[in-house]
């Protein structure tokens, strides 16, 4: 009977969010409308990413330079779709995209109370070889609707209302938190709907995987180097950890959430602030990891407590299973 109930009683992402927002009846409709526009963007990108391989085929059949151009187009196209979907939702006010140097202030006639920071297509260097890529987003509320400023998006991550990512992989999965745990939804292509498939995701307390670009090891600082050494040559009798690194943040974080472990993009001598961007990479992923019971640390502080001063600011980041992040925190504390 249970299986039958599952097949006929579909928990779509919209239904799920409406249920969750039941606690805040005043914002129920607005947030749901905003989310449905984000979901539209994700569906568009999912379909475009699927077709990217076919564009390659045409390229191989004779057209020169199609590969490079196509990849660029997909980035730009995805960004345009998200910007237009968000603006037309009538629920946004300020938008920050990885693809735009400046913040986008929505026309007053179309303004709503939410600010969205997003990376429309993260890991795009992976498109050509068919590796998973994703969209990442974080949502804030404006402080004062009569005086909208950059300060509305330069807020600490602790003020975030919701965050999520959509992974375009072997299936298309949207992982979302509205501050009440983390849930995963998988796109059913025949319905065109995201269906709840991973309710209440909790990251294992301790993991067996570390995930880092070890090619940068030469330039790492002491605590990062020591941590990775411990992963490979543990001194406490435990087994060494496995290394998994896709080089696509959404895919690496998705695996970390489901299987546990730690993802590191540390500072190094060449990039003293690491690589990943605070507003649309570090914050949303840190929010999700904390909501799943894990931790996110910058090497100095809890990642969500950063107070960004620039739109495209970067930060080192260590995030994942609670116990694994505790270990790296201890190494940084003993260094200080
Ligand atoms: P991008 O925004 O230019 O795509 O870069 C972000 C990506 C992340 O998805 C990934 O975690 C990281 O860059 C990998 O960087 P690296 O190639 O230095 O290991
Ligand atoms: Mg990116």
Describe this entry's structure for a reader.
Its EC number is 3.1.3.11. It catalyses: beta-D-fructose 1,6-bisphosphate + H2O = beta-D-fructose 6-phosphate + phosphate. Keywords: Carbohydrate metabolism, Cytoplasm, Hydrolase, Magnesium, Metal-binding. Pfam families: FBPase, FBPase_C. Its main location: cytoplasm. α2 (13-21) packs antiparallel against α3. The longest helix has 33 residues, at 28-60. The model is unreliable at 57-67 (pLDDT under 50). The chain is α+β, with helices and mostly antiparallel strands and 336 residues long. The strands form two sheets. An eight-stranded mixed sheet has the order 2-1-3-4-5-6-7-8, sandwiched between helices. It has helices at 2-8, 13-21, 28-60, 66-88, 222-232, 249-259, 278-291, 322-335; strands at 92-97, 104-105, 114-122, 133-141, 162-168, 172-177, 183-188, 193-198, 209-211, 242-243, 262-265, 295-297, 317-320. The chain is globular. A hairpin with a 3-residue loop joins β5 and β6. The chain binds 2,5-anhydro-1,6-di-O-phosphono-D-mannitol and magnesium ion. Magnesium ion binds at residues 98, 119, 122, 281.
| Cα end-to-end separation | 58 Å
Please tell me how large the radius of gyration is. Answer: 20 Å
State mean pLDDT (0 to 100 scale).
91
Q: Which strand order does the major sheet show?
A: 2-1-3-4-5-6-7-8
């Amino acid at each position: 009977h249970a299986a039958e109930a599952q097949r006929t009683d579909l928990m779509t992402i919209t239904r799920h969010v409406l249920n969750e927002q039941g606690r805040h009846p005043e914002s129920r409709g607005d947030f749901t409308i905003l989310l449905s526009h984000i979901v539209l963007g994700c569906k568009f990108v999912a379909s475009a990413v699927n077709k990217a391989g076919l564009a390659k085929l045409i390229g191989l059949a004779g057209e020169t330079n199609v590969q490079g151009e196509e990849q660029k187009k997909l980035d730009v196209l995805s960004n345009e779709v998200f910007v237009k979907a968000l603006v037309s939702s009538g629920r946004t006010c300020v938008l920050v995209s990885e693809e735009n140097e400046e913040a986008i202030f929505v026309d007053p006639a179309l303004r709503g109370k939410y600010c969205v920071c997003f990376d429309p297509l993260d890991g795009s260097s992976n498109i050509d070889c068919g590796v998973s890529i994703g969209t990442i987003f974080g949502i804030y509320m404006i402080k004062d609707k009569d005086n909208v400023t950059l300060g509305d998006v330069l807020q600490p991550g602790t003020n975030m209302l919701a965050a999520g990512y959509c992974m375009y992989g072997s299936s298309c999965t949207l992982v979302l938190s509205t501050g009440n745990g983390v849930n995963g939804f998988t796109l059913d292509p025949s319905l065109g709907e995201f269906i709840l498939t991973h309710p209440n995701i909790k990251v294992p307390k301790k993991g067996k995987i570390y995930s880092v670009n070890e090619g940068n090891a030469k330039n790492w600082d002491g605590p990062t180097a020591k941590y990775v050494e411990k992963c490979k040559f543990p001194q406490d009798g435990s087994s060494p950890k496995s290394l998994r690194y896709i080089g696509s943040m959404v895919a690496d974080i998705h695996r970390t959430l489901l299987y546990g472990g730690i993802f590191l993009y540390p500072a190094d001598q060449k990039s003293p602030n690491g690589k990943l961007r605070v507003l649309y990479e570090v914050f949303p992923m840190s929010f999700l990891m904390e909501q799943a019971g894990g931790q996110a640390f910058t090497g100095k502080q809890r990642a969500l407590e950063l107070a960004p001063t620039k739109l495209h600011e970067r930060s080192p980041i260590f995030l994942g299973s609670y116990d694994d992040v505790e270990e790296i925190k201890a190494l940084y504390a003993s260094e200080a």
